[in-house]
Amino acid sequence: MSEKVYIETYGCQMNFADSEVVGSILREAGYTLAATLDEAAYVLINTCAIRDNAEQRVRHRVRELRSRQGRGGLRIGVLGCMAERLQSRLMEEEDNVSFVCGPDAYRRLPDLLRGVAEGRKAAEVELSTTETYADIEPVRLASNGISAYISIMRGCQNYCTYCVVPYTRGRERSRDPRTVVAEAEGLFARGYREVTLLGQNVNSYRHGDTGFAALMDAVASIDPGLRVRFATSHPKDLGDDLLEVMASHTNICRCIHLPVQSGSDRMLKMMNRKYTVEWYLGRVEAIRRLLPDCSVTTDVIAGFSGETEDDHQATLDLFRRVRYDYAYMFKYSQREGTYASRHLPDDIPDEVKTRRLNEIIALQGQIALENNRREVGREYEVLVEGESHRSKERLFGRNSQNKVLVFDRGDAQPGTYRTVRVDDCTAATLLGSLTHNN
Ligand code: SAH
Ligand code: SF4
Ligand code: F3S
Question: DSSP readout, 299-357?
Fold first, then answer.
């Protein structure tokens, strides 16, 4: 009988996509993917290093798993960004971890597991300038059979001063566009109706003469019934060419995640974001002009090095001007090895970071609710995804703007498109009903 491996994933969408590649590599090597931890001989924890609390969660989990590790019991491997950042130090600090494997070394996993079975601990953390796993068809672990991730580029070399990703993910590299289109075509043929193209800086995708706008054009041309999303775009690389391609395909979703990080030019400069507030607002204006029904979402950091009350107010002002549909909001967490950890003091007291973060959260909650109230009465085409978490009588799906709509199930089926009228809302969800003209 083949040995079973359980994969647990933390962090961003890229990590979830990587876990599906890992699953495929292991299956190919003769391992079985376990549905639960109880039946597994190995647990692989795919980790995130972006903020200290992400790492603490993983350490806590690793310690908690100790109780399952008697003689011949569960073996633990740590994958992903924390493995890359800490390397063999992680096995010294957490001595119940048997191996670590960084994001570019997943093809080495079958060897690592064999080594562990023979009692050898090891760390595989070499980064690559070429690895994209383009030839590996991911097992769709997280998938509902309707929506899937396609990783199209890896790595980041923007070196925002606060960020650990360039050190954990290595240099940028992009997949051959033909492999991306083939993967999307295969998914559509198997019944999938939505693909999300992923990269740390998805719009700096480039392979030979093919840039991101041309790739999006090719993927969106597969079939108008296949929705195409992408994440995450860096504001500095958001060109009108992409917006024009989006405008020419109704199946490219009207949602752009455009992380701003701060509303203060002084902070943006210290963060090495390579744009100003004015330039960012110009990009938002271009989105509104070329794609009037497009939602805009963001990431923001409160309490970066040297952030004054004025800088913080500038962030709140920017939020009032852009009126984001959604925001991921974080407290600055200093990361070892980054430019900021070497040259910029982590000098904002934690209670000030918390207060500023809470002010941003409160403002954004109010804006999201006001935005959603304006949706009442509108009708949207929704890709039905499944049962609502609260009630079996209701289904949920998303509109092109990536907003979740919940509605009475009627005769709707997951995996199909239906028109839903918005009747009511909360700050997070639109509540609606099926219209019967579809
Ligand atoms: N590549 C994407 C972001 C990837 S990380 C981009 O540049 O837009 C996701 C988010 O985590 C970032 O947008 C940022 O808001 C946040 N983040 C990154 N490093 C952080 C740190 N040291 N402390 C707090 N938040 C951080
Ligand atoms: Fe980090 Fe900046 Fe790269 Fe985003 S662009 S992953 S924030 S270094
Ligand atoms: Fe975290 Fe690595 Fe993604 S640090 S956010 S899992 S690229």
Answer: EEEES-TT--HHHHHHHHHHHHHH--SEEEEEE----TTSHHHHHS---S-HHHHHHHH
What does the pLDDT read at residue 438? 52
Q: What is the pLDDT of residue 421?
A: 97
At the second CATH level, the architecture of 4-124 is 3-Layer(aba) Sandwich (3.40)
CA of 8 to the centre of ligand 3 (A): 14
pLDDT tens sequence across 285-309: 999 999 999 999 999 999 999 999 9
Q: How many angstroms does the Cα of residue 4 sit away from the middle of ligand 2? A: 35
Ligand nearest to the CA of 299: 1
71 pLDDT exceeds 80? no
One-letter amino acid of 148: A
Atom of ligand 1 nearest to the CA of 328: 15
Under CATH, what is the fold of the domain 379-434?
OB fold (Dihydrolipoamide Acetyltransferase, E2P) (2.40.50)
User: Ligand 3 centre and the CA of 5: distance in Å?
Assistant: 22
Q: Residues of the chain with pLDDT > 70: what percent?
A: 99
Q: How far is the CA of 15 from the centre of ligand 1 (A)?
A: 14
**CA pair distance 126, 105, nearest whole angstrom:** 6
> pLDDT category, 70, cuts 50, 70, 90?
confident
Do 31 and 16 meet the contact criterion of CB atoms below 8 Å apart?
A: no
pTM of the prediction? 0.96
Nearest CA to ligand 2 atom 1: 163
Task: Report the amino acid identity of residue 182.
Answer: A
pLDDT of residue 142: 72
Task: Give the CATH number of domain 147-373; options: 3.40.309.10, 1.10.3130.10, 3.80.30.20, 3.40.630.30.
Answer: 3.80.30.20
